[in-house]
Design brief:
Pfam families: Glyco_hydro_18 (PF00704). One of its GO terms (molecular function) is chitin binding. Belongs to the glycosyl hydrolase 18 family. Keywords: Carbohydrate metabolism, Chitin degradation, Glycosidase, Hydrolase, Polysaccharide degradation. It catalyses: Random endo-hydrolysis of N-acetyl-beta-D-glucosaminide (1->4)-beta-linkages in chitin and chitodextrins. The protein is an alpha/beta fold. Among the domains are: 39 residues; 260 residues, TIM Barrel (Alpha-Beta Barrel). The protein is built from 14 helices and 15 strands. Strand 12 and strand 13 form a beta hairpin.
């Protein structure tokens, strides 16, 4: 019994030390451009001291399979402004997220006026997010040796030219035939990542640069998730960002939090979708869970109820009223949720199964919003630490309040104290190979202390 207790405590101590990454996604889609009282979320407003990594969404897969700028003449300046944050946080690393916009050849075939309009639409189509993009290009990219080699060479040149430290891939999703996927996508993706990792490792480093990091965004569950061969991909990536959010939403006929910690819909057609389910289905037992970041969202989901019942699982007819700033059906930013709560017309409650919060408003309580707050995020951070995961990834940072209530809560819990900046671990910290977390003197000291405590506790039990 003593040896079991010692092992368990030592393992837990190692898990707590492993949770170090704080990854934030930033894009030119950031809210606030036309919202009274909410400034546009420009790079200079990013709380860089609270993150270890920032991902810029999105770069573009060009028609000839190179990495390109999504909005030439605009994005380059944004790249520079984002990478300038590394002067504020010298441990900060940045990556560019790969996507695919409408083809330029298509745009150039139209008349000039129509082309200008289509260019605007194409820019929106790309910056709206990974799901909105033309994912068929991912399948075409990985399907041939020539296309892979072309992209790999251009991507290394691109990230070095613009000052990024890594590349993040958001393919939603391999083998999805409704979105241009093919049956061979999963194995082709593994081959692509193998070749990209080899190119990254072979790169000659100069001027104090470090090896580029490689990461992949993963779906938060078995839907599409089975097409990511994580046990094979793990040897080529530095980490995965597990998108354990948007698991439920207004496409369903019952109201649930978008990212419940545990399954609240057992016994219904919507069962099987929770953070816990995402971890179980996407993290192979053969792979160190420290390779995975738990993805969280700073936005909630909205429903219009068609019953007087308001508890989670209540019948719903569709998305709720759009937020006053984001104006997006089915979702609402946390800063909009806070406005509802402070207005005095909303009734808030806690889903004790899903470990999340929800509120209702309007005179008949027909509007329902599920969301995470500091308390539920504390539970999620505790969950990822207990599982030995490597950290957090946030989609997207701009949905937080202007005083960064959620970001502060998450980072404080993640690092067990405020003022945690000196204890963060940058990047993969290695000069070769698919890296593991770098180990700072502070972390070594904490692990040593934890092991000593575990030994003492083990003999005491």
């Amino acid at each position: 019994m003593k040896s079991l207790s010692l092992f368990t405590l030592t393992l837990l101590s190692a898990h707590l030390a492993a949770a170090q990454r704080m990854v934030g996604y930033y894009g030119i889609f950031a809210t606030g451009a036309n919202c009274t009282g909410i400034p546009r979320f420009v790079p200079e407003l990013v709380p860089a001291h609270m993150y270890t990594h920032l991902n810029f969404a999105f770069s573009n897969i060009t028609d000839d399979f190179q990495m390109g700028v999504t909005n030439p003449g605009t994005d380059e300046a944004m790249y520079a402004r984002m990478n300038a944050l590394k002067k504020i946080n010298t441990q900060l690393k940045t990556a560019v997220v790969v996507g695919k916009c409408l083809g330029r050849a298509f745009l150039n075939s139209a008349a000039r006026l129509v082309s200008q309009l289509l260019t605007i639409l194409a820019s929106w189509y790309c910056i709206a997010g990974g799901w909105s993009m033309n994912m068929s290009y991912y399948s075409l990219l990985v399907s041939s040796a020539q296309n892979r080699a072309t992209f790999i060479a251009s991507s290394l040149k691109f990230v070095r030219q613009y000052g990024f430290d890594g590349i993040d891939f958001d393919w939603e999703y391999p083998s999805d035939t409704t979105r241009g996927g093919q049956a061979t996508d999963p194995q082709n993706l593994v081959l692509f990542m193998k070749e990209l990792r080899a190119a990254v490792n072979a790169e000659t480093l100069t001027n104090g640069t470090s090896r580029l990091t490689l990461s992949i965004a993963l779906p938060g569950g078995p839907y599409h998730g089975q097409y990511f061969l994580n046990d094979q991909l793990a040897q080529y990536v530095d980490w995965f960002n597990l998108m354990a959010y948007n698991l439920h939403g207004s496409w369903e006929s019952i109201a649930e939090c978008a990212a419940p910690l545990y399954d609240p819909a057992v016994g219904t057609a919507f069962s099987g979708y929770s953070v816990n389910n995402a971890f179980t289905s996407m993290v192979p037992t053969s792979v160190d869970p420290a390779k995975f970041n738990l993805g969280i969202s700073f936005s909630g989901d909205t429903f219009t109820l068609n019953t007087s019942q308001t508890t989670p699982g209540s019948s719903a007819s569709g998305p709720g009223t759009v937020g006053w700033c984001t104006k997006e059906a089915g979702t609402m930013a946390y800063f909009e949720i806070k406005t509802l709560l402070s207005g005095g017309n909303a009734t808030a409650a806690v889903d004790t199964v899903g470990v999340c919060s929800y509120l209702t408003y309007t005179s008949n309580s027909s509007q329902w919003v599920g969301y995470d707050d500091p308390s539920s995020f504390n539970s999620k951070v505790d969950f990822l630490k207990a599982k030995g995961m490597g950290g957090i990834s946030v989609w997207a940072m701009d949905a937080d309040t202007t005083d960064f209530e959620l970001t502060t809560a998450v980072t404080t819990r993640l690092y067990n104290k405020q003022g945690w900046l000196n204890n963060v671990i940058p990047s993969n910290g290695t000069k070769s190979g698919a890296g593991s977390l770098a180990v700072t003197g502070d972390v070594v000291a904490r692990v040593v202390v934890a092991v000593i405590v575990a030994v003492v506790a083990g003999f005491a039990l």
